[in-house]
């Protein structure tokens, strides 16, 4: 290569290289986008949902969400979604132990909680109980012990918005539980998350509101890449539509997972996006 040609060739190489990166981050138009499973979907119904059913189904379709873990306060929203399940949208219903918003901070001390759970359970289709909020010693309450006994008897999964001490207590009560860990500790250090996944094989980490996965430029952090590659079968995505604003930005929230999924080995990305939920909830392919 002579000196005169070196710069244009270098620029050409940089250009080709950037094309290559672009192609890796964004699937070609002909390539179908990864199907997504939303493992943290609230369809709250108090007294009516933010988004009517038909619009919600259209939103899932447009966003590439082909399955949801549905729960709501009260459970009416989950029943309505479950009645509309189809091949285009598989619905995994979870029983929420709340009737009204205030239950979030008192359900674990309210004996009425078990009445609600037993009544709702009669529908016969709930795969689990949650999302419930439970921290520290709150997990030692007799109501929680009753709920765990019930879940154990009926082989139900749990969806817990919990800190590490509460999870430790839940696993002590129900050692072979499968617990979906809402938000994966929010900002808990990656090595602590690693320790929890190592300690509890039944723990499945759901990633809504989880900080630290990417840096400000959107590049996946080395800690989180390591976690995803070490435990590719232990992560789920979620929207957490707990307030209206989350419904208003639903397409962006779920869409924001795609750029970092595209930075992972394709098989790992497929498992986190859909495959882990498919295995856990026995979804149709
Ligand atoms: Zn939630």
Polypeptide structure, described:
This protein has one domain: Metal-dependent hydrolases (TIM Barrel, Alpha-Beta Barrel), CATH 3.20.20. Helices cover 44% and strands 15% of the residues. The chain has 12 helices and 8 strands. An 8-stranded parallel sheet has the order 1-2-3-4-5-6-7-8. Helix 2 links the parallel strand 1 and strand 2. The N and C termini lie far apart (53 Å). About 5% of the residues have low confidence. The site of zinc ion has 6 residues, from strand 1.
Spatial order of the strands forming the largest sheet: 1-2-3-4-5-6-7-8
Which word captures the global form? globular
Q: Number of domains in the coordinates?
A: 1
| Percent in strands | 5-15%
Q: In CATH's first tier, which class applies? A: Alpha Beta
Q: What's the helix-strand series? A: HEHEHEHEHEHEHEHEHHHH
CATH A-level architecture: Alpha-Beta Barrel
What's the β-strand tally? Answer: 8
CATH homology superfamily name: Metal-dependent hydrolases
CATH topology (level 3) name: TIM Barrel
The value of Rg in angstroms is 21 Å
